[in-house]
Design brief:
The protein has 129 residues and is of the alpha+beta class. It has one domain (2-62, 96-127). It has helices spanning 2-10, 72-85, and strands spanning 14-18, 25-26, 28-36, 42-51, 108-109, 123-127. Strands 1-6-5-2 form a four-stranded mixed β-sheet, with no helix packed on it. The chain has a two-stranded antiparallel sheet with strand order 3-4. A hairpin with a 5-residue loop joins strand 3 (28-36) and strand 4 (42-51). The radius of gyration is 19 Å and the shape is extended.
Length: 129
């Protein structure tokens, strides 16, 4: 959890601001995962915070959605091309991903549980990325 929070702070993803009564707040939750090696031994504990997007209302809280996901057909095509051209393939494990640009919309989320710096009732986090 500390590693995830430090990544958020380092990448300037949010800022803590006073809660506005007329703005809706998106809740947050933690997702925990245990990674095992090929022998079943615990390799790493992971924690990720996720927004409870189901609490948003289309047309009020958002207009459209976007998620950067690679299609399997694209991956297969790239691997086939790499095999044909004898290119080297490298695998990367990305710990955190953030958009390069700043968001224009005002999106407010609850403070991360366990990392509150102000009273939860009076302050929320405004997303910047």
């Amino acid at each position: 959890m500390v590693e995830e929070y430090e990544s958020i702070a380092k990448n300037n993803v949010l800022e803590k601001v006073p809660r506005l009564a007329y703005k809706s707040i998106v809740g947050l939750g933690w997702i925990f995962k245990v990674r095992h090696d090929t022998y079943g031994n615990i390799e790493k504990y992971k924690a990720k915070f996720m927004a409870k997007g189901y609490s948003q209302v289309e047309g009020i809280d958002y207009e459209e959605t976007f998620s950067l996901v690679a299609r399997y057909s694209s991956i297969r095509s790239i691997l086939a091309l790499a095999a044909q051209m004898e290119w080297n393939i490298h695998h990367m494990d990305v710990k955190t991903t953030f958009l390069n640009g700043f968001i224009k919309e005002e999106v407010y989320i609850d403070q991360l549980e366990g990392f509150e710096t102000f009273d939860r009732v009076s302050h929320v986090c405004k997303l910047k990325r």
